[in-house]
């Protein structure tokens, strides 16, 4: 199963910007994620085509489970 942490920001153009991180720790605390996001904005670490990241819009853990079907040998 694929698991990603999505950090969602708003840029200067008012559009959402997603930063996706693979395999986040299971012990990840919401407060820690918020602190990191605030630091990213305060230190202007990333920018986007719509300008600097200016606000936190949210964060989420996304899980994706894929099962391949062997239709070629069926």
Description:
With 74 residues, the protein is α+β, with helices and mostly antiparallel strands. It has one domain (2-73). It contains one helix and four strands. A four-stranded antiparallel sheet has the order 2-1-4-3, covered by helices on one side. The model has no long low-confidence stretch (mean pLDDT 96).
- Output mean pLDDT: 96
What radius of gyration results from the CA coordinates?
16 Å
Order of helices and strands: EEHEE
Low-confidence stretches: none
Summarize the structure.
This protein is α+β, with helices and mostly antiparallel strands and 74 residues long. It has 1 helix and 4 strands; from the N terminus they run E-E-H-E-E. The longest helix is centred in the middle third of the chain and has 13 residues, at 30-42.
Keywords:
single chain; 74 residues; alpha+beta; 4-stranded antiparallel β-sheet; 45% strand
Please describe the topology of this protein.
Layout: E1 2-11, E2 16-22, H1 30-42, E3 47-48, E4 51-64
Antiparallel strand pairs: 1-2, 1-4, 3-4
